[in-house]
Amino acid sequence: MKVKELKEEERPREKAIQYGVNALSNRELIALLLRSGTQSLSALELADKVLALKATLGELGNASIQELMCIKGIKKAKAIELNAAFELCRRIAFDKVMHKEQIEEPQDILEWLNQEIGYAKQEYFLVLFLDQRNHVLCYRTMFMGTLTSASVHPREIFKEAMQQGCAKIICVHNHPSGDATPSDADITLTKAIQEAGKMVAIPLIDHIIVARNTYISFRQKRLMD
Fold first, then answer.
1. pTM given for the model
2. Phi then psi dihedrals of residue 157, to 5 deg
3. Residue ranges in the chain modelled with pLDDT below 50
4. At CA 90, angle to CA 83 and CA 105, rounded to 5?
5. Cα–Cα nearest to 225, from 185, 181, 192, 202
6. According to the model, what pLDDT value does residue 7 have?
7. Which string of b and e fits 135-155 if b means at least 16 CB within 10 Å?
8. Dist. CA 181–CA 205, nearest whole Å
9. Alpha carbon of 162 to those of 98, 101, 125, 152, 205: distances in Å?
């Protein structure tokens, strides 16, 4: 079975060699990852199918292997390769966070947060553990699902914080709806975490809500003491 080939002027690899990867469009980058098309679709045409799977690149980055395999022409091997590329992007973004000398503003971690949970379909609650200089030591996904004061336990957060030997924490969660506006439950939960932090001398320095490339910082909005 012969795979449909691209014309020379349409070949992303040759274009990347001549002009650099930065010169490639989104469809050309996807085609480069796919490497080949099918009998009826070129690699670029198959890339169009991949891009059409989700409304934005951010959402595409969270596509599962199973979702990618729903595209005609994308079998398990190609789906895994695409999924691995998306995961590598997230890890590169977090590596940048880890190598910052200190976290001063939400913008310092937003690129990673948006890739990690900004487009997720369910709620995730992450905690970043920082040293005295506001350098990120590590992070943990503490809870998943519908987040309420009943499901998110401050004692579990600070138990982990003490195990990590951190000095401060930042809490982050996402709103799959796309609206980053804090709910009453979000505000109540933040106050509970903040009070627990005072008791163990590990302050909560911010709570950030991310939602499809938007965010709300409790500290910037003065929703914290």
1. 0.83
2. -60, -45
3. 8-9, 149-150
4. 160
5. 192
6. 55
7. ebeebbebbeeebeeeebebe
8. 19
9. 19, 22, 18, 17, 16
